[in-house]
Design a protein that fits this description.
about 15% strand, four-stranded mixed β-sheet, 9 strands, alpha/beta, about 300 residues
């Protein structure tokens, strides 16, 4: 007998959870690493998730208090000697797949008989956090003892290694942090105005994210005025990118206390388009990889333009 269970609208599910976390005051790119050992969510093999999976699994972990970075399918857990506890609810991991379809109206204007078109669609599979699984190797479970506070100087080498090669023009002074797209320059307050070097790096990562959108780089549309959809999307992208940079460097991404007006604009965009957060996550991933590539470029100084990344 054919199942009557309706297909899952994974884009709607993801968007609903992201909206819920924003409304709760904890966007997933802001505070995921305070719950566990920090960094991006990882597959069972240790490979980091990217794109929307990164944000979604951060949000699930934050909502449920999971402390492990590792996620895996039921079968993978068993192969690793673990057992998902009875009653545990799975999360979803998504990827894009595609299919070809014959043109439904051969001979129509602009379409030749026998033409095919490629249709891309979102697929999902179920995963569990290691915190929901018993019997795994100790490496899958974080130490529950909170780590001692790390002095900013302990991270300064990593901060410098990431930001120093980025060829953005950065000026210091004044009381505002912003990217001037007309002059293609970043302006930040004097370093002494920040609570710590970590906070300075967090702010710099947000503005560097905007810098990647210039027409000579990733060529994004910034929006014409505060509050329009493109402006809100660009600010959302910069926040997510900053979260990725901070996760990479082990920093707390708390410097940008999202103003209520920004949050309201984000929610408007997300509620109007259930795919908006997926697109924003993909573009933020691309911006992060663009910035990261400067510190991982070959010794000969060559630089390969970053392609947009997707989960496979």
């Amino acid at each position: 007998m054919r199942s009557t269970v309706p297909p899952r609208d994974v884009a709607a599910e993801i968007t609903a959870l992201i909206i819920a976390r924003i409304e709760a005051g904890t966007p997933p790119w802001k505070r995921p690493w305070t719950l566990g050992s920090g960094g991006r969510p990882l597959r069972h093999c240790g490979t980091a998730y990217t794109g929307i999976n990164n944000l979604y699994l951060w949000a699930v972990a934050d909502a449920n208090g999971y402390k492990s970075r590792y996620w895996m399918t039921y079968r993978q857990a068993g192969e690793l000697g673990g057992q998902v506890r009875r009653g545990e609810k799975s999360a979803i991991s998504v990827y894009y797949s595609s299919m070809t379809k014959d043109n439904e109206a051969p001979g129509a204007a602009g379409a030749a008989s026998g033409d095919t078109k490629t249709i891309r669609f979102l697929r999902a599979y179920s995963v569990f956090n290691a915190s929901q699984i018993d019997g795994l190797d100790a490496r899958f479970y974080p130490d529950n003892t909170p780590p001692p506070p790390i002095a900013p100087s302990d991270r300064q080498a990593a901060i410098d290694a990431f930001f120093a090669p980025i060829p953005a023009r950065i000026g210091y002074g004044g009381n505002g942090a912003y990217y001037d797209r007309v002059n293609d320059a970043i302006q930040l307050p004097d370093p002494a105005a920040f609570k710590s070097a970590d906070h300075l790096a967090s702010t710099k990562s947000h503005e560097c994210a905007h810098w990647t959108g210039h027409s000579d780089r990733l060529a994004r549309t910034f929006g014409k005025k505060f509050g329009d959809n493109d402006y809100a999307k660009e600010e959302l992208l910069a926040e997510i990118t900053s979260g990725l940079v901070c996760a990479d460097l082990g920093l707390a991404n708390e410097i940008h206390d999202s103003h209520a007006s920004y949050v309201a604009h984000w929610l408007t965009v997300l509620r109007a388009d259930k795919t908006a957060i997926i697109k924003a996550a993909a573009k933020a991933e691309r911006a992060y990889q663009y910035l990261k590539a400067f510190s991982t470029a070959p010794a000969d100084g060559s630089f390969v333009r970053v392609r947009e990344l997707e989960d496979a």
